[in-house]
Here is the input.
Amino acid sequence: MRPPHGAGVRGVALATAAYALAIRPWQLRWGATVEEATGPVAGDDLIAKPDITATRAITIRTTAENVWPWIAQLGQGRGGFYSYDMLEDLVGCDIHSADRIVLEWQDIAVGDQVRLHPEVGLAVAAMERGRSLVLQGGVPMGDTPPPYDFTWAFALREHDGVTRLLVRERYAYTTWWAALLVEPVEAVSFVMSKKMLRGIKDRAEGVGAAGARSIGGTM
Here is the structure.
């Protein structure tokens, strides 16, 4: 027996409210403390008034020196993003996440492009070697520019040989319909970012234990 139309509408409304009040805030600050989620991160000055901010974090039990090389070699055609390569490849990204540090991928500077896809990249807008990397840009929709400005920041904070890795995404909408695109994308980003953080953690802690034997040449 089909439920009454009114019951279906109420169910959708309750599910939407639950997502907005509980699930979405949790996704936007997964792993981060209140102080980390609300405090400053490198690159915040690039977007003064974001429409949406996500700050996610993880504890990595090794030094920032051991974590940084995995951040430095991010990108398509480089070290990948340590997430679900198969899902990224479904949209033609051609991502192959590295399991070792590659010396040829360590040289990164402001102005360089970190590719998300063979034809799409974000610019390195700011960087402090060993501490932070900030990417900026957006993904165009064919010939249409992205309807938002976007920053993607990676920040390392070390204390007593243990490192907190913070990853912050900030969007500033430039069209009225940008939210219709960004909100679903942000839900997917949560899944991918969580996997990425854990991927970096596993790799960096492995290098911390194994030492320089994990460093190699081009794969």
